[in-house]
Amino acid sequence: MKDFISVNQLNERRFYQIYENFQDFKNKYKNGETKLSTLRGYSVLLTFFENSTRTRTSFELAGKILGADVVNISSSSSSVKKGETLYDTIKTLEAMHSDFIVLRHSMSGAPALIAKEVKSHVINAGDGAHEHPTQAVLDAFTILEKKGKIEGLKILIVGDILHSRVARSDIKLLSDLGAKVSICGPKTMLPRHLEPFDIDFVYTDLDHALPDKDVVIFLRIQLERQKKPFFSSLNEYSIKYGLNQRRINMMKDDAVIMHPGPVNRGVEIQSELVYGNRSLILDQVENGLFTRMAIYKYLLEN
Ligand code: CP
């Protein structure tokens, strides 16, 4: 496993090996070991061609905690603006002896294409509407920590499934690990062909979907990927698919809510519930740091 491009590369053994790294790093950090040498002498290049707060910052901090030299390449100030291709950009960076290239790109398949061309470890930090594998891993770790298991859990993913790379990676990984994954959203935002996905139920009515679920993952509406309107108004979307107190009351007492972020407050989740007592959103963010440390280590050693 030179690269981490897709959750399809993870079997149960690999997933739990990375989980061991994750727990080890998290425990060490909480015990004050905030400077480690796992990546000393290695370089990490962060190449984000789409905006990011959580993913880019956690990959940067994770690399620095592990002792790597971390360099941020911003597409807006790089020679991409002069018309240089992605291929030439990455070959140029590799010629400077990059060990890890973390790539986010609007084009589905870009990290897989680049991984074939370079010796560096390539990590997919989100490609178009295709995959966001490290997000799926941190989501699974967060569920595992909170619930003690994944197998048998009823997990619901709500919202813009059609445009969501998080949904694709989450559905695949969580169902492979034994969860019963259902989806819910307006018909216009559900993929037409669901055969490739292992989905328990498809709902269009959130009130029907909520009562027996253990985990509910709300997705951001990806307005930047919608070339035409997929719903009549944000207000109508929020009424039909947004989380509010009435819907919290319908859920199981121990059900939790998640969101990969950034949240459109008042649309996917009512503002006061974003960090409420059911929410694991900040746990997801924190676990993103240790997950990315664990993935660097796994790729280095395997
Ligand atoms: N979850 C996620 O990918 O967030 P960012 O776009 O802020 O990295």
Q: Can you walk through the features of this model?
A:
The chain has 302 residues and is α/β, with parallel strands linked by helices. It folds into two domains: 142 residues, Aspartate/ornithine carbamoyltransferase (Rossmann fold, 3-Layer(aba) Sandwich), CATH 3.40.50.1370; 148 residues, 3-Layer(aba) Sandwich (Rossmann fold), CATH 3.40.50.1370. Helices cover 38% and strands 15% of the residues. The chain has ten helices and nine strands. It has a five-stranded parallel sheet with strand order 7-6-5-8-9. It is globular. The N and C termini lie close together (6 Å). The mean pLDDT is 95. It binds phosphoric acid mono(formamide)ester (CP). The site of phosphoric acid mono(formamide)ester has 9 residues, from helix 2.
**Alpha-carbon Rg, integer:** 19 Å
Helix content: 25-40%
Q: How would you name the CATH homologous superfamily of the largest domain? A: Aspartate/ornithine carbamoyltransferase
Walk across the major sheet and give the strand order: 7-6-5-8-9
End-to-end separation: 6 Å
CATH architecture field of the largest domain: 3-Layer(aba) Sandwich
Share of residues in strands: 5-15%
